[in-house]
Every structure is written in structure tokens, then in C-alpha cells.
What we know:
Shape: elongated
Oligomer: single chain
Number of helices: 3
Helix content: 40-55%
Distance between the termini: 81 Å
Amino acid sequence: MKSSAVKEILLPVLSLTVICLVCSVLLAFTNNSTKDVILQRSIESENSSKATVAPDASAFSEEKTVTLSDTEYTYFEALDSGSNVIGYVFTTVAKGYGGDVKVMTGIDTDGKITGVTPLTLNETPGLGMKAKETSFLSQFAGKVQGITVNKSTPGDNEIQALTGATITSKAVTSCVNQAFDIFYGIKE
């Protein structure tokens, strides 16, 4: 009787252990063989986003950091063909309806937005996900510090909220306003 109890317990435990070990080795191998491709695609995506938010830039500086209010931020300088700084690119995060919203914002040296693009957006399909659309993002172009969200007719430094997605609209706007805080922090 003890022999059958051992077989009923020990055999499944050993089988599952071997299966887990084989799966772990396969996952480690897959991760190791694809990490360079994933890193390269991440860099390409970041460069594409930088070019989108700072369209007049010919190149970008290496990543720089600044600490404001005990928080460290990274940014890039947008450079013209003569390596002169013509603007800055900031990546910021705010809380949205479906989680964190991560936005890249371009600001020229005069303190005006040159472009905005969401990097991470997990909002409600058909509502908050419209924050990726050009019709929403283009509202930010040329705006200056202190942008607010308006549900009806926006004023000079306001953007119109997405219908049914005010929280997402405010999250994107918060990211852009954070970028302005960093911009003015590095200008001091």
C-alpha cells in the first residue's frame, strides 16, 4: 500500500518538475536569442517617436537627466543640422483610466509644443484609445505651459476632451504639462 501511495505522489511531482525545468530552459533560450532584436526595435520605436514630436530636428543628443522635486527625469535635446539645440523631447507618465499613460512631448526653445505622441496607452477601445489619433494630438501643437482640458469649446490654451474619455484627455494633458515643468526646470 505504501508503494502505490509513493507512486501516486512521487511520480506526478517528478514529472511536473521535469516539465517545469524543460519549459524554463526553453524560455531562457528564447529570451536570450530575442533580446537583441527586441532592444533594436525598442530603439527604432523611440527614435521614430522623437522624430514625430520634434519634426524639425536633424539629430538628438544622448539621453540627459535632471532631478526636479526629488524625481529624476530623462530627456533629449533636439538638434538642427549644425548641432544647435532647437528643442527638447521629454517622456512623462500620468495615471489614466486604464492604467499609466506614457507620453513623449516635443517642446521648442520658445516653450511651444512641437508634437505629442503616446507611447503607452491602455485605455478603453473606441473611447480613450482615440487619444492616439491625429485629430486629438494635433490640438497640442503650438500650445504653451498650463494647458487645460475643456469638454465643450476649447479656448486659447485648452484642448477639447475626447467624448467619453475625459480622464484619458486629462492624463495626456497632465503628461504634457509635466514636460513643461521639466523644460522650465532645465532652463533655470
